Amino acid sequence: MYDAIIVGLGPAGATAAYRLASKGFKVLGLDKESFPRYKSCGGCVSTKIDKILDFDISGTVEATVNGATFSFRGERSLDIISDRPVGYNVRREVFDKFLVDRAREAGAEVLEGRKVAAFNDTGRSVRVLCATGESFDARFLICADGASGGVARRYFGLNPKESAVSLTAEVPYDPSQVEDIHGRLFIDFGSVPYGYAWIFPKKRFLSVGIAGESRRVGGRIKECFSEFVSSHSVLKGMEIPRRVGCTIPLYYEGIPRVVKGRVLAVGDAGHMVDPFLGEGIYFAIKTAQAASDVVAGCLEAGTADTDGYQDWLSEEMYRSFSSLVRLARLVYNHPRLWYRMVEKDPQIMHRYYDIIRGEGDPEEFYRWIFSKVKQKPWKVLRGWVESRFM
Ligand SMILES: Cc1cc2nc3c(=O)[nH]c(=O)nc-3n(C[C@H](O)[C@H](O)[C@H](O)COP(=O)(O)OP(=O)(O)OC[C@H]3O[C@@H](n4cnc5c(N)ncnc54)[C@H](O)[C@@H]3O)c2cc1C
């Protein structure tokens, strides 16, 4: 009998395994893949990660980012670079394996190549069945099976349509052959409905991608991707290799509970992704830590009262995410107007960098932007106000 089983060992699952094993609990982590494994991702981790990790990740960082060069449909280039870091670019195969190694070192048992097919919460414990035919028992189950797993989605009734669709490619490049792109991201608005496109430089690869809300993008993601890569100056003359499609399970209003009895969902499995930028690595780690602490408390007290995790989510995560839902509506319903505002007042982006750093309040930012919009002519204003309710 394990104290906890963790399904999926991306940043969320590896963190949960690390956290609980570090506290001396008997932990089993299961992943259907073997590490290192590829994960479609921009791979930019916000610097607020520094405040929540108790180990150093600098060995996995390929570039520290101080800002971005923005564009609108490949044009109107705008550099907004801060004097302080905003994020770290990592390669997910390296970063995720590093986290799994930390979990192992802390004492978690890790089994790779184990796809979890089903589980059953008996009330006293949880039995987990793998596609290999093996079964394991634990006092608690943490579902960290990401966007593609479906284990948490089915159990908690999460809506897969509340997602962004994306297409990405890892483009090899020779840094000496490209204009100076060090220390920045490239972000393009207007190239995809209700989303954005990006180039996140690593040492020898450019992570190139595009993502937009699935209902609005429909089947046009490939078309948008091709237009973006052909219009962006950084990618001129580069060969774009294999493209990978993936969904991004965004936080949404009316999200169901992700705690039931002895089972909890963390990270992408529970739609813990910022609905404005699609940032998920930090939130995967943060929610995994919170869920693990609640499970640890239950194990110590001999109870199964996991509601504390749901309360924490409502208080600490969902309030900010709700503000970001409203911000996304404003920005992505009116990308041209948003871009014009940023061009006129780059301070907007500097203030948003503070939010990414974990130093600003999304609700205040939203109100500040909304007050700026209120000064616009009435037709524009009416469009923005209406978009709040769409
Ligand atoms: C195109 C794209 C770009 C992104 N860019 C960024 C970015 O730049 N910065 C950022 O912060 N976030 C970004 N994100 C979001 C980020 O990738 C996720 O939020 C993050 O990976 C969530 O971590 P996780 O551990 O919850 O899930 P994952 O990293 O997806 O890990 C889930 C794990 O579960 C395993 N698994 C699945 N099903 C099963 C099963 N049945 N049994 C056992 N194991 C299973 C998988 O093999 C996987 O290892 C991006 C996402 C996409 C799609």
How would you sum up this structure, described in words?
It is a single chain. The protein has 12 helices and 18 strands. The mean pLDDT is 94. The chain is 37% helix and 26% strand. The chain is α/β, with parallel strands linked by helices. Strands 1, 2, 8, 9, 10, 11, 17 and 18 form an 8-stranded mixed sheet that branches. The protein has a 7-stranded mixed sheet with strand order 6-5-13-14-15-12-16, sandwiched between helices. A hairpin with a 4-residue loop joins strand 9 (116-121) and strand 10 (126-130). The protein is globular, with a radius of gyration of 21 Å. It has 3 domains: 2-43 and 91-159 and 254-305, FAD/NAD(P)-binding domain; 163-249, D-Amino Acid Oxidase, subunit A, domain 2 (D-Amino Acid Oxidase, Chain A, domain 2); 332-387, no CATH class. It binds flavin-adenine dinucleotide (FAD). Residues 7-13, 30-33, 39-45, 115-116, 144-149, 151, 166, 168, 209, 211, 246, 248, 267-269, 273, 278-282, 284 line the site of flavin-adenine dinucleotide.
